[in-house]
Amino acid sequence: MAFVPLSSLGKALSSVVDGKTSEGYRKKYGELESTLEQRRAGVHAGWGEKYIDRVHAKGKMTARERVEALKDPDGRVFEVGTFVNDGREFQGGLKSPGAGVVTAFVEIQGRFCMVIANDNTVASGSWWPQTPEKIERAQEMALKLRLPVVYLVDCSGLFLPEQSKTFSGARGAGYIFKMNSLLSDGGVPQVAGVFGDCIAGGGYMPLISDRVYMTEQAYMVIAGAALIKGAKSQKLTSLDIGGPEVHVSQSGCADVRVPDDATLLRCVREEIGRMPTTAVDYYRGGTAPMGPAFDAGELTGLVPPDHREGYDVCQMVARLCDQSLFWEFSAGSGEEILCGVGRVSGLYMGFVTNRQGLVDNVDAPGTKRPASTLYREGIAKISAFSRACNADGIPLVWLHDISGFDIGTEAERQGLLGYGSSLIYTNSTNTVPMFSVLLRKAAGAGYYALAGAPFDPVVQLSTTVGRLSVMEGRTLAIATYNTKLDDDFEIATDDPEERAKIEAGMAEVEARIEGDMDPYKAASQMDTDEVIKLDELRPWLEVLAEASYQAAGVRRVKNPRIWSLHDLDQLAGRGVVRTAKGDGAESTTSATGAAAGSKASADGKPCFVSPTAGRFYRRTKPEDPPLAEVGQMVKPGDVVGLIEVMKTFTRLPFEGAAPVKVTKFLAEDGADVNAGDVLFTYEPA
């Protein structure tokens, strides 16, 4: 039972995606990720060079310079919340890049810490709307993982023109201090460095920390000198009121005074060095961290940027796990779901995602159904796997590329609501660290089922093509204007003026909803924690894996001899092939789509039939030539059409034993077809 049956997973990229298609994917991601870099740089610049120069003129460092000096020389920094408040304007047309605070996982003295640093180039580190929530989110991450917290305080208090949005709410500024208290109660070390302004709420934030350092320029006050002058007519400076002479030598609210930023940061590093070392090597059990056998950098050439196009998720997982080794859980059931265990940086992690394309329909043998949808067996499989990982202490990674739950009379008869409720309960009560990644689409209740943000993942990441929504823009436009449409969803009027009005209205709804699904908007309003490049996913998982196992003795971590997963595997039956589907011949889906059947037509001619109900297309794009035409030679593996089901396009490869010649198309381009309908007939070449 101690043996974890990891098996090789994956193939060379060239055998999965043709070169032209892969290059097209890379080009699109390149454009999107160039935009990401530019937007990151804009946030990192704060309010610009003028304000950076102003900080330097005071003999101080900027927030990001402090973070850089604090980390190990070869240490890693992974920022969260970069795009909070992105695109928002406040009174006077002012902006608050990153909500005026830097929050990041930072490697210090060989272990990860959560660093929270006021951006002193943005209104002197003031707290804007969502600044408290961003700080609290970082504190929650630290509490769940038991990571030391370092506060680099340089904060002039609330940005008062917007105080109503930061002061009074349940998660307003005061909740920061509750989180300080909960971290202390949970035994999480907290170290604070005060570099300058530390007024009102900013003054409370460091006080519950175990150690508080102050530079000679720093002060902590309930009210600054300006307020006291106005209220009490006293001529004082803030340093007189609450500088290091007061709080280190008299009040005891701080522990150590130091001359400058550099000295303070060196002292904080020394404090971190006194803490217990990381337990990561212990939990690796002698296994060295290794990269995937297939380069994670290939993900941009593998995963289509268009969320409607299918791909082989096994190839993606192969580029995330150490040595591309994986143990698939319950491979013989719930085929639309891929879940199992692999190592990341030498540490066990559980993975859950849904396959793309089409899979066998167990409720209608001989037909197919879309894999990006949740069905009864798959939901039950996820629930069992999630519970087992929680029991065994295996952190969970949820990879979202899902259209939602199955719908219709059969889905209701089978009780998908009940199965879904069981999964929701499981994910709501898990205590193991969970991490959510919005790969492409995260739609409807499928987003909840895969432990999206409402179910408290420690971190939720989104790629540049991540889409978070209940319904697609076009679908919602149809629903909004349903009374104006016929049974084929075409506008039901002959009045040109009315038609134009309806068309404009539907276009407006579709554009607005598509805009709402933008990953930067989700990040701006804190529906996701960070927007990342696709090839940054593996490094992110390494950090999250190491952070999950860093603290020993604070959560259940079973050794593999006593995993519940082994018991479930035994009960599932040892006859199930242990090799993960997608890397071998037992897979029922191809790398790009699904097998469509060949059979004899009514007149006895061999024909190619649709594997499922959907909309059949002969072209990849309206302007492209047909994938197959009458008289054309078609070889095994050639893509001959597309089938659209649940907003996902699946390529249909010809899977005969030998080349054939197409003789007649029976399905029009764009026609709705049923499972088993003849798409075209053919004859031997």
Q: Helix and strand layout, with pairings?
A:
Layout: E1 7-8, H1 19-44, H2 49-57, H3 63-70, E2 77-80, E3 101-108, E4 111-118, H4 131-145, E5 149-155, H5 174-185, E6 190-198, H6 201-204, E7 211-215, H7 225-232, H8 238-242, H9 244-251, E8 256-258, H10 261-273, H11 280-284, H12 299-302, H13 313-318, E9 325-328, E10 337-344, E11 347-354, E12 358-360, E13 368-370, E14 373-374, H14 376-392, E15 396-402, E16 404-405, H15 409-413, H16 416-429, E17 434-443, H17 444-449, E18 459-463, E19 467-469, H18 473-480, H19 496-516, H20 519-524, E20 530-532, H21 537-549, H22 564-572, E21 598-600, E22 606-609, E23 614-617, E24 633-634, E25 639-645, E26 648-653, E27 660-665, E28 671-673, E29 678-684
Parallel strand pairs: 4-5, 5-6, 6-7, 7-8, 11-15, 14-16, 15-17, 17-18, 17-19, 18-20
Antiparallel strand pairs: 1-9, 2-3, 3-4, 9-10, 10-11, 12-13, 21-22, 22-29, 23-25, 23-28, 24-27, 25-26, 27-29
